[in-house]
TrEMBL record:
Residues 113-220, 260-372 form the Plastocyanin-like domain. CDD domains: CuRO_1_2DMCO_NIR_like. It comes from Mesorhizobium cantuariense. Keywords: Copper, Metal-binding, Oxidoreductase, Repeat. Gene3D superfamilies: Cupredoxins - blue copper proteins. Belongs to the multicopper oxidase family. SUPFAM superfamilies: Cupredoxins. Its cofactor is Cu(+); Cu(2+). This is Copper-containing nitrite reductase.
Amino acid sequence: MGEGKLWLERKFDRRLLLAGGLAAAGGTVVAANAARGQTSHAGHEMPAVAAAERPPAHLSAHGAMITVGEVDDARNGFDPSKLLSDWYTGTVSMLPEGRTLRTFEVTAEDKEIEIAPGIMFPAWTYNGRVPGPTLRATEGERLRIVFRNQGSHPHSMHFHGIHAARMDGVPGAGLIGPGEEFVYEFDARPFGCHLYHCHALPLKRHIQKGMYGAFVIDPDPARHPEHEAVARSRLLGTPENAGWQEFVMVMNAFDTNFDNENEVYAVNTVAHAYAKKPIRVLKDKPVRIYLVNVVEFDPINSFHLHANFFDYYNQGTTLTPTLKTVDLITQCQAERGILEFHFRDHEPGLYMFHPHQSEFTELGWSGMFDVVEAVS
Ligand SMILES: [Cu+2]
């Protein structure tokens, strides 16, 4: 009984953090905005906020269950709307054997980031952003990742891929101290939607502090004659790939008070970013999402698309769907996959996506697609 009551109180505390309509938590938001010269008031009229910056009306009607105010993207150094299609393809050179060598440079650094309006989080980052850069390569290339640790703790990059033990990014194999550098090198395989994360101990703390990112390996069409067209559509830089609207979404969460529970949930870090600024998609162009779940402390996460169904490629390692015509998938931590769908037969409008854990949705993880006929 006592434990149940404690649990309830804790849940209530977590909601307080984001529910703008509650004055106690709203104070934080107001204070943060005041410091920035804004005059919005949590949960009340926002006369100084332009109509375009307000959440869509129906979301407000949802009981104002989204954050109030704006996160300072410039101070964070990353904009959730741009993260969606910000592929880091590194620099390319040719090895003597005629194979492509793709080199990435990644630096670990401590950085305070704003994860919801007025809520700062002391993150550990790759290249100053959370999630870290989306590394994108092509199957069969040689990859070289130059990793520098300018943070205050030992860190590593542990790749979900195929590589030698000494490249595994675990203690004794690529885990480096502050001020040190390590070069990971391995072949890009298998093709798919993968991830990397720090493997320093305690693992749950290093991951939860923001040390993770997506790692996409596009299939080489020449190696897949039986599904060449599909492979080409996945290969960045081809005309076939340009026919898609591709987005990377890393489902993450933040434990702001170090109680081994998350207070803020999101895709790509900023709570409700895509609810406030819906992701514009053309109705005639198919959508492909590289979805990765890195949430610590909660055993499972999910992705549910409203008013539509999608095909799913578990871990992205196949060229035929592993699930067809579903509107929800679940992912454990480090699970990931590719979603494909389109709005060809839909009328334009706002189409929601969120996990089907309502708590996550209320605490920051929900968004909208703004389906339009053409981009104006
Ligand atoms: Cu680390």
